[in-house]
Automatic annotation (TrEMBL):
Pfam families: SIMPL
Biological process according to GO: DNA damage response
Name assigned to this protein: DUF541 domain-containing protein
Signal peptide: none
Domain of life, per lineage: Bacteria
Gene3D superfamilies for this protein: Protein of unknown function (DUF541), domain 1, Protein of unknown function (DUF541), domain 2
InterPro entries: 26kDa_periplasmic_antigen, SIMPL/DUF541
Length: 221
């Protein structure tokens, strides 16, 4: 005998105050030769390290997330008006990342230090949760609760009785637990340093689950 089913999607919501900060730094420049690009990349990295060391960041805590050196070109018109590709040199790019506890005073000190760093990095500030498990659990509980409430409403309106849960479908996707709140070059940070006082909002998330219920029978009128 075929089992009657009811499929309902539940949506959950959860929020939490961020407890950590990440600063992503980007070092990039173009030099005439590959050797010069390598030398300047190493110099810029060392300048960042020297800037952050007095603020409590060891060499190991300044992590490189991406490094590359590639030929750089640009397209422009020649004297005949024909568009051609011209070799500019070798572009290096080094993406760095530092993380620390949510401390707005320390954040201001770090941004101010980076603003006068000779490497002239561009950077973005993110607030995030170090442990996402509590948010993920709250999201799932909220989503299942929402699905149950919707199912009960639908069952009552349809005149049926719900039985056991036959299946719960969840895609286990990555839940975003960070928020980007600031992005600037070091010069911009220097120009606006006295105004920096970042207080992030709670990080809010939503997610869905699909719950399949067994329908036992129709209520007697």
């Amino acid at each position: 005998m075929e089992i009657s089913r009811m499929t309902v999607k539940g949506k959950g919501f959860a929020s939490a105050s961020p407890d950590a900060i990440a600063i992503s730094l980007q070092l990039e420049d173009i030099k005439d030769t590959y050797e010069l690009a390598m030398q300047h990349a190493a110099l810029a990295l060392e300048q960042v390290r020297e800037t952050l060391l007095p603020l409590g960041f060891s060499k190991k805590e300044i992590r490189s997330t991406h490094f590359s050196i590639d030929s750089a070109y640009e397209h422009r018109n020649d004297f005949r008006g024909e568009n051609k590709r011209y070799f500019l040199g070798y572009r290096y790019r080094n993406d760095l990342k530092i993380t620390f506890g949510n401390d707005s005073k320390r954040l201001g000190e770090i941004l101010l230090a980076l603003s006068v760093c000779e490497a002239d990095p561009e950077f973005s500030v993110y607030f995030f949760l170090k442990d996402r498990r509590a948010v993920e659990q709250a999201l799932l509980e909220s989503a299942v609760r929402d699905a149950k409430e919707k199912s009960q409403v639908l069952a009552k309106a349809s005149g049926v009785i719900l039985g056991k849960i036959l299946a719960i479908d969840y895609d286990w996707g990555e839940i975003e637990v960070r928020s980007r709140v600031y992005a600037a070059s070091s010069k911009m940070a220097y120009d606006s340093a006295p105004m920096i006082d970042l207080e992030p909002e709670d990080i809010s998330n939503s997610d869905t689950v699909t719950v399949i219920w067994e329908i036992l029978h129709t209520k007697q009128a």
